[in-house]
Specification:
Layout (H helix, E strand, L loop, with lengths): L4 H14 L6 H5 L12 H11 L7 H17 L17 H4 L2 H12 L16 H19 L24 H6 L22
């Protein structure tokens, strides 16, 4: 599936901010812990989910625009930590051109409703609560995608759910020591308590 390059790099920047590649973790915790969200294609997970799962309206493109508007607002306020160079905006994505710290600040502007709702794209236009809800859910969706089996659906990743086929053990499962799906897998069903004390 081909994505709009601006949308793809905007979500790539978001994922790289929330779950970055962290090589320093290799020293104390092993190389498997260094893997970031981009390696697991979580940018594609976000785009696919926003276009297929939440509403009858594709939301990836307007959500990417929401992030770019917030980035523009941050720059206009002069609140960036790193000086902004518009020539460094890949495919015109202002959000992707910001540093990781400044991307978080841009998201915070959305979460705090510090952006004029009249300049937002449909369906966020003049609907600040919906824009705020989307900003708040981006972190959750990113982490959910990372710890799901999404990355190892390989070529079936962008197909319908019933066509997904797990090809390998996802990196995130290896990171947390999850052995994988199994028939009648023992799940936590509570704690053994000998005596209950109020």
């Amino acid at each position: 599936m081909n994505y709009d390059p601006k949308v793809k790099v905007t979500f790539g920047a978001l994922v790289d901010t929330i779950i970055p590649y962290t090589p320093r973790l290799a020293y104390g915790q092993g190389a498997i812990q260094t893997v970031g969200g981009l390696y697991s294609h979580i940018d594609e997970y976000l785009i696919w989910s926003l276009d297929h799962l939440l509403l009858n309206v594709p939301l990836a493109s307007p959500t990417a625009e929401l992030l770019n508007i917030a980035a523009g607002q941050l720059i206009a306020l002069g609140a960036t930590e790193v000086s902004f160079n518009p020539d460094n905006s890949p495919y015109g994505s202002i959000f992707a051109a910001l540093s990781q710290e400044d991307r978080l600040k841009a998201i915070t502007l959305l979460e705090r409703l510090q952006i004029d709702p009249m300049i937002l794209p449909f369906p966020f236009h003049n609907n600040p609560i919906y824009a705020q809800m989307m900003a708040n859910s981006l972190n959750t969706l990113t982490v959910f995608g990372y710890y799901s089996e999404w990355s190892e659906y390989e070529v079936t990743r962008l197909a319908q759910f019933e066509e997904h086929k797990l090809e390998e053990m996802p990196v995130s499962w290896k990171q947390v020591g999850y052995p994988g799906r199994a028939y009648r897998y023992h799940a936590l069903r509570g704690y053994l308590v000998e005596k209950f004390i109020e």
